[in-house]
Amino acid sequence: MSYRVEAITREEHLAFATARPSVSHMQVPSWGDVKPDWRALSLGWLDEEGRVAGAGLVLLRPLPKLRRYLAYLPEGPVIDWTAAGLEQWLRPMLAYLRQHGAFSVRMGPPVVARRWSAEAVKAGIADPRARRLRDVAPTSQEPQAAGVADRLRRMGWRRSGPGGRDGFAAGQPRHVFQVPLAGRTRDELRQGLSGQWRRNVGKAEKAGVKVVQGGYEDLPVFHGLYAETAERDRFVPRPLPYFQRMWTALRAEDAGRIRLYLAHHDGEVLAAATMLTVGEHVWYSYGASTARRREVRPSNALQWRMMCDAHEGGAAVYDLRGITDTLADDDPLLGLLRFKAGTGGEAVEHLGEWEYPLNRVLHGALGLYLSRR
């Protein structure tokens, strides 16, 4: 089968994406509206009969002072990654993007390589010999992942380095933590929580923590907690207009695409989080909390409510997004890994992000530019 790649309409792109059980929230058309510093392009793979067989949201970022672009497909494209003829999917994409001014292409194949159960992660944290997840025997491995990686290398693709928060150093986490929901009852989900998690959820319930859904008007409250979290955890926060734009853009595409949850106690919001949904996949996106009254466990109550709502809505996966792959005691993100492991889910490793230089001179200049920032 041969495919031709061309621009498709947002409507065609959305119809293709929503017909599948799981597509990244970064691969639906509205995500391009969330990123105004990038130019969004919907690409389609058309088969010999003109039907859309694959799709990808491409974000184009111009190189300073030049009309040349970095083309980025976060957690995409949505194609048949297990196909024996993977080249027939990727080569026409590279040709199209080269023709339209791209000097480098970066993508994140949505291909799972390995999984570790919560018990395996906890055992790794407790083992002084284990410094990273790769030092822990995986609970399961996906045999096709190694073949995909080999084919990408033979085509000239190379694994990208760690991504940053803005600019060209875009990047999505290679390791995430997910809770499988399909085929499980709510009681089974609760039993799957660690003992400490169940106790914390019980403490929150007994203390009277109430978790409710908020609206656009509650985003400033969320952002106040988010800014406090950023100062406490030492990261640069996104501004309030980013979340307002995200809310407006995603809900214009689908009213259920994004939700805001707020954990109240004694008249004060102590924790808040955004939740994204595409098909049967639900993501915990951004979270925030205050250091005040942590003893009533608002963050546990918040996550439990979101997990239950995802389950009730028919989701197959509740995705808590990125985790560190470092198990060392001195890693500041280890506490977050412990928190997520308490949900009883599993650590999931994807193939990571890959890049292809269409113009090696400009691609090299980009690397030099980033190294000096």
Description:
The protein is α+β, with helices and mostly antiparallel strands and 373 residues long. It folds into two domains: 1-108 and 354-373, 3-Layer(aba) Sandwich (Aminopeptidase); 182-315, Gcn5-related N-acetyltransferase (GNAT) (Aminopeptidase, 3-Layer(aba) Sandwich). It contains twelve helices and 16 strands. The protein has helices spanning 10-18, 30-34, 87-99, 118-126, 143-155, 186-192, 195-207, 219-233, 240-253, 298-312, 334-341, 360-371; strands spanning 4-7, 39-46, 52-62, 69-73, 102-107, 112-117, 140-141, 158-159, 175-180, 210-214, 258-265, 268-278, 281-289, 317-322, 346-350, 354-357. Strands 7-6-15-9-14-13-12-11-10 form a nine-stranded mixed β-sheet, sandwiched between helices. Strand 11 and strand 12 form a beta hairpin. The longest helix is centred in the middle third of the chain and has 15 residues, at 219-233. The radius of gyration is 21 Å and the shape is globular. Residues 163-170 have low confidence and may be disordered. Keywords: Acyltransferase, Cell shape, Cell wall biogenesis/degradation, Peptidoglycan synthesis, Transferase.
